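ok so dumb question maybe but i'm new to this and my supervisor (M.) told me to 'just get the structure for MFS transporter' and walked off. so i did the thing. is this what she meant?? sequence i used:
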Amino acid sequence: MLLWGGGAASDLGSAVSTLLIPLMAVQSVGATTFQVAMLSLARRLPAAVFSLPAGVLVDRLRKRRLMLWCQILCALAIGSVPVVAFLGHVHLWQLYVVTAVVGSITVFFGIADLSYLPHVLTRDQLVDGNGKLNATETASDSAGPALGALLAGVVTAGRAVAVDAVSYVISAVTLVLMRAPDPRPEPDRTRTAPVSFRVAMTEGLRFAWRNPVLRAIICCTATANLGIIAVGSLEVVYLVRGLNTSGPLVGVVIGTGVLGGFAGSLLAKPLAARVGNARLMWVSLIVCAPFALLMPLAGPGVGLILYSLGWGVFNAGGAVYQTAQMAYRQSSIPKEILGRVNAGIRWVVWSTMPLGALLGGVVGTWLGLRTALWVATGFLAVTGLWLLASPLRGWRDIPESQAG
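this is what came out, is it supposed to look like this??
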């Protein structure tokens, strides 16, 4: 409950900043479409640099202790924005630096968090536990933009970012209060001598790529992330400048769309029992992902419903897929290399995020915002095809040979 509650607080704060920082860039700094997209790039690029070494460190350090320090450092970094906003004027370069620092620290926290959960929950609880964590994350993603827009109207966007700094402090406190085991790293029983840091960095990636199901999950998630970040780098500019949408309404439109992810997270467990936990991974995306193509059809006023609907249905399918595939990874990968395998997977799937930000910025600048949105949602629509071409297509449930 402490891990869940602290994560929920941190998720809500981060979701508030996800709207406020680009909103500051657009309304206060006067940033261009490309400059706003580069904010997304600054946040995602560290994953391509730090994921593999982070996986080795996670497997060699106590995970909860590492998570605690990550939250403290994030609170200090993001807290600099409201301090400067209160004393004077926030500059674009500061937004870039803070975004990059928080993005870098989040790489280490995310891998540690994902690898620590199997120490807190039993194998049978992982689908339900991941579903609850995803539900609060998506609920935060839904409420965060609306809350951010409201706070920006009351105290200005720069000062409202203080909510994110406080959320990191709350998360750190819950980690301190936890009494669940924070075990020492487990030795790798398959080797008799230690290996170098460089060799250890690639072990997880090799393990994941040799497994056909994990390989399909990597390709599917990488494609989805490319499209999601391209959409995220465009949507505030598209809604504000392209469709003449007010700041508070932007928060409502984006937040309403993210509600689909909340619904999908709640439905993951009963759907897994009815459809099968293996079949559910690809069915959810094949059915829901094409709805993303409704987003470029949105127009001003009532037409904004299409944007929220397309985004909402896609997020519902994505949340179901995410819950199922995370449980598969946590239950089938040996714990002594779980951090490195998660890091290897994350290195690939997060490396497409900077490309998505670059894609959104370049295409949006050269060919227009709506064309760029068509390209981005096109990637989202086809994500399920990777899973359909994998062994998952013939499974209802994950075979016992794939577990443990």
